[in-house]
Design a protein that fits this description.
By secondary structure, the chain is of the alpha/beta class. It has helices spanning 72-91, 106-117, 164-176, 195-210, and strands spanning 3-8, 33-36, 42-45, 51-54, 99-104, 124-128, 151-156, 181-186, 222-225. It is 27% helix and 20% strand. The strands form 2 sheets. The chain has a 7-stranded parallel beta sheet with strand order 2-1-5-6-7-8-9, sandwiched between helices. Strands 3-4 form a two-stranded antiparallel sheet. Helix 2 links the parallel strand 5 (99-104) and strand 6 (124-128). The two termini are 31 Å apart.
Length: 226
């Protein structure tokens, strides 16, 4: 079964620097999985005093909380770029339900925005230490098909860059608009990508592919798993 995993890096990082993530996916179920590791365009980042670095959109303040100001213009432009990557794979014959958009930090934030605004039901979005980069009014733009896309959200409770409450708030928002979201909480973890998280991601993704992309929860909603 052909599948596609698009991995979106955090600000200041690059796609190739994250390719070792594939090492966690050695099971035969992933033998036909194609990976994408794009690198964001370099741009001045306000919070870093205008320093130029790869980033999907600008960041104006940290830490990021559930109340942080959302600069949607840059996010929406990045979403269009992600949709172009995804739609290319669909046109090449990969089922939308076998396409997964994933990312860490800013990349995770872009992943959830991209899934919410894509017109089709995708295989899932996996957010590592991200936040909701769109205002609550985005719920009016989420299609019934997009609401069927399952979400896995992983977040450390000691994250000082994107606070845990930002992830928790985003999970509740997804529940309120009728989406399925699993919030995987990691006590004591900070703002970093940990082995335990990648192992859980591999298990989650394997279960989706083995079940033909179908959501195996009995009903929609968010659940917190320690």
């Amino acid at each position: 079964m052909a599948s596609y995993v698009l991995w979106l890096h955090g600000s200041g990082d690059s796609g190739p620097a994250n390719e070792s993530i594939k090492d966690h996916f050695g099971d035969t179920v992933f033998q036909n999985t194609k990976w994408g590791f794009p690198t964001a365009q370099s741009r001045p980042i306000t919070v870093n005093r205008g320093a130029v670095m790869p980033a999907w959109f600008d960041v104006t303040d940290v830490p990021i909380t559930s109340k942080s100001v959302r600069h949607e213009e840059g996010v929406l432009k990045a979403v269009k770029d992600v949709h172009s990557m995804v739609d290319k794979e669909i046109s090449n014959g990969i089922s939308p339900k076998n396409i997964f958009i994933c990312g860490f930090s800013q990349g995770g934030s872009l992943a959830i925005a991209s899934v919410l605004l894509h017109p089709k039901t995708l295989g899932g979005a996996v957010v590592f230490s991200g936040s909701m980069p769109l205002n609550p009014t985005v719920k009016e733009q989420v299609s019934p098909e997009a609401k069927k896309t399952p979400i896995l959200w992983l977040h450390g409770t000691d994250d000082q860059l994107i606070l845990f409450e930002a992830g928790e708030s985003a999970s509740k928002f997804l529940q309120q608009i009728g989406m399925t979201c699993e919030l995987k909480t990691y006590p004591g973890f900070g703002h970093s990508l940990m082995e335990e998280e990648l192992e859980y991601f591999a298990t989650w993704l394997k279960s989706r592919l083995q079940n033909g992309g179908e959501v195996i929860q009995r009903k929609r909603g968010c659940c917190s798993v320690m």
